[in-house]
Structures are given as structure tokens and as C-alpha cells.
Amino acid sequence: MKLPQSRLGWEGRVQPGGKKAKGGQALRAFQEASELPVSGQLDDATRARMRQPRCGLEDPFNQKTLKYLLLGRWRKKHLTFRILNLPSTLPSYTARAALFQAFQYWSNAAPLTFREVKAGWADIRLSFHGRQSPYCSSTFDGPGRVLAHADIPELGSVHFDEDELWTEKTYRGVNLRIIAAHELGHALGLGHSRYTQALMAPVYAGYRPHFKLHPDDVAGIQALYGKKSPEIEDEEEEMELPTVPQVPTEPSPMPDPCSGELDAMMLGPRGKTYAFKGNYVWTVTDSGLGPLFQVSALWEGLPGNLDAAVYSPRTQWIHFFKGDKVWRYVNFKMSPGFPKKLNRVEPNLDAALYWPLNKKVFLFKGSGYWQWDELAQTDFSRYPKPTKGLFTGVPDQPSGAMSWRDGRVYFFKGKQYWRLNRQLRVEKGYPRDIAHNWMHCRPQTPDATPSDGDTTSSATGTTLDTTSLAIDITLHTDRSAGDTILDITPLATASTALLFPGNVTHPEI
Predict the structure, then answer these.
(1) Which helix (H) or strand (E) holds 94?
(2) What would the pLDDT profile of 309-361 be if each residue is shown by its tens digit?
(3) Where are the domains of the chain?
(4) N or C terminus of the chain: which is more exposed, having fewer CB within 10 Å?
């Protein structure tokens, strides 16, 4: 038999081909934990209970007693956390306050402290995503049922279903504060409780105005980290965990990736494709596009509304342009001395790209371009040159440009994009639609069948990018070289991450 829900959050799921006895045992365990009549039969009451919104963590209850279940613990009690993005259904200050309060439930019950970091590595990372996620192997199922899931110590990922109606201080929707506190319980090492009124119960019991931890929750967290002492309470008062920010600000408007209009496009480190619009950036992935993040959340100190962005595999530098200034980053770390002023290139650039054939950076504005050697002084007196003298058929004032992984050059403007052939001429059948072919937005309009090597095919469903951004970014330090390395893949190590000497001179542009 097979239970009618794909992710129960406990070890009661029956695999295909399993015996009826195992299914009955799983049902009895579920019924007992849910305070239902224990029959081992899939009756209406059991079905109704299974359909309730719940946590997505798959772990066993303590089968012997009603006691809390322990899954592991952190080897330290002072943890950092990072909020990677927020739900669209709540103002940012309301959502942040709810998440802060979720941490406080646990720091009030045990000798734990939590400190927020705005960039780089954090012990616990919180993010929201929908059914498709470029950084989570367990996809969500849309509104209802599985609401969130988390990793056990010391992994630290906490994921929330973006498709839920996240709310605060109302019986409508799903309460973010309570669900976040539950998932943080998992991240700290607690499994599911058989007490239905406990925070760590697998099924969401709804909004409770005067919510507090159940004694089983408190006993569980104290079994892992000990009881709180007056000295620890004094330490916690020094932490900055406000329930409400001092000056609430309206969240900046999030762009619609399906509008097709972009500020910049960039093929970044490790072949990740980034799209920029306003104060936000997202990755173009195998499902079309990844979650939206504020630009400053990934590249600390970088403003939004960029003019151009370009990554150079030659130097492993990322350059961002806005107005008369340029910023340089190595992965997500700004280089010393930046931003700098553009002195020999016109301000307010339109686009930039790295051309692997001559290993130079091309900067575009209006109908002209500049060619820049990052590691040598460049004679800009001969520039700008006409763009169409080199790239035939491309539009003036492009909003973005890049040399992509298929070896082709792409230009973007408005809602359209152009692809160039090996002779640097726009290919037949272009321009095409950005939203359809790059973002995979629905509903789709049938498009001409792309030629071999195109980024997408509406007929076959072939997509752009089979490797997506891993949000679990990790900072490592190479003590011998004195450089900081930022890995954006879970398997990257200090020996495999990209490094570039920090003492290389930067020619003025």
C-alpha cells in the first residue's frame, strides 16, 4: 500500500513493493502520534489528518515514548544566521521581525545566542522558494501540505515554501513566526514530537495569539544544550535581536522576470548566468530562473540599478558599472580600493562582455564600444569604435551583452535578444523573446525552432543552465596566501576554488 501523501515528515512512508504489515505499522504509528483511534487502517479521519499542512522533514518519532526526539546538536552555542530572501506576502520588516522572534523562542529556553550576518557564510541560512529550486533537492508541492523543511545540525539550511500565504498576527494563511520556530528546532537538532500541541509536532496546528513553547519543546532543547543560567541571560540582552526594526521601511518593489526587460546579464563564475533588474538579481537555471535576491545581499556594498556587469575568466574579476563608478569583486568579496571612478571611458555604460577569443573586456554605450585589457594599460584614444563594425546587426544601446557557454555572443535590449554566429553576425530568426527563451515564462508562445546550440527549445523543453547557483555559500581562508575564497558549490574546497593574487595591479579605465 502507499500512503496518500508523498512527504509525511516521519518514517511512516511505505515504499512501493512494501508489505501490508509495514503499512499497517506505519499507519498505527501515525495514528498514535496524531491522537487518532489506532486501527492500522487508512480511514477517513486518518486521511483528513494526513492532508493537513505539515513540516517536510522526514524523520522517525520516538517509537517507545512520547518524549522529544533528538537528531543531533551543534558543537557550539553561539550561532550566526543569514536571511537570504523574504516572502512576497509580508512587508520585509514584518517578516524579519517574525523570524527574529522565532530565534528568540529557543534562545529564551536554552543557553543559545544568535547573531545575524548580512553577507558571506552563516551557520543557519533561511530562504524561500517554490516548487522548483536551484539549491534544494527536496522540492515543495504548492500551497498547503508541506510548508517548510530544514536540515539537521550542522548543515543549517532552512527552506520555506514560497507558494504559501505567509502571514503574521492573523488566523488567515500560515503563521511565519510559528513555522520558522518549528524549522529552527530541527536546525538545532530536535525531531518531531508526538504531543500535538508541541511546537515540534509535525502537523501545523494554526495560528496561536499567545504562543509559547510546550514543555516537551523546552525539555528537548535543554537536553541538547543545557538549561539557561542568569549569566547567559545577561549575554543575550547584549545581542541585537529586535522584535521590530526601529525604522520600518517599505520593501523595494520586486521586478517581474517575465517582463523580459533587464538592466544587465552576466555569465559569472563557474558558469552561472545572472540577470539583474533594479535592486534584484536572480540566476537563470534549468527551470528558467532562480529565486530573487537583493543585489547587496550577494555582493555587499554594491548598489542596484546597475548599468553593466561582466565576469572575466582570465582574472576571475567581476566588474559592475553604474554611472561614473566601477566596482570590482572576486566572487562575492569587494576588492580593496573600490569603487573607483571611470576616468577614460564614458559614464552610464549600456553593457559589457568578456570575449574569450582575445581575452578582452568590451564596454558598450550608444552605438560604440571600448576594448579593455584588464592587465595592461589600454590606449583608449582610438575609442569608441562603431559597434556594428565588429558585431553586425546588433542594436544600439543594448541593455546587456555576454559571451555565453555555447561560445556565442548574445545582446539584450528591451524584451528581445540577439544571438551572433561565429562570424559575429546576427543569426537568422533573431531577435527572439527573452521571457520565453531565457526565463521560460508561461504561458508560452510557439517560437521558431532554435538551431543547434541554442539556449532553449519549446519543442523538447531543453533549457539553458544545468548547473544553478548554490545558495549555501561557504567562506574559506587560504592562510598561506592571505586570500579569501568563496565557494558557491557545496563540493568546492580550498584546493578547487578559484584564486587570483591580490597584488595584481588594476589598470585605470
Answers:
(1) helix 92-107
(2) 999 999 899 999 999 999 999 988 899 999 999 888 899 999 999 998 888 99
(3) 1-51, 78-237, 257-437
(4) N
* Three cell numbers written together for 231: 549569566
Could you tell me if 192 and 61 are in contact, meaning their C-beta atoms sit under 8 angstroms apart?
A: yes
Amino acid, single-letter form, for residue 415: K
CA 435 and chain centroid, separation: 20
pLDDT of amino acid 135: 54
Contact 309, 276 (CB under 8 A): yes
d(CA 346, CA 112): 53
Tell if the pTM clears 0.85, that is, is over it: no
| Residues acting as catalytic residues | 183
Rounded Cα gap, residues 344 and 384, in angstroms: 11
Question: Could you identify the residue written with the cell 525604522?
Answer: 247
Whether 101 contacts 280, CB under 8 Å: no
In this structure, how many other beta carbons lie within 10 angstroms of the beta carbon of residue 199?
27
Hey, what amino acid is at 182? H
Domain 257-437 has CATH 2.110.10.10: yes
What is the spatial distance between Cα 34 and Cα 379, in angstroms, rounded to a whole number?
75
Q: How many CA atoms lie within 13 A of 371 on its CB side?
A: 11
- For the chain, the C-alpha Rg in angstroms (whole number) is 26
CATH of 78-237, picked from 3.10.560.10, 3.40.390.10, 3.40.50.2000, 3.40.50.300, is: 3.40.390.10
Domain 78-237 and domain 257-437 have a common topology: no
181 vs 151, residue with greater confidence: 181
DSSP secondary structure, 329-370, as one string: EETTEEPTT-SEE-SSS-SS--EEEEETTTTEEEEEETTEEE
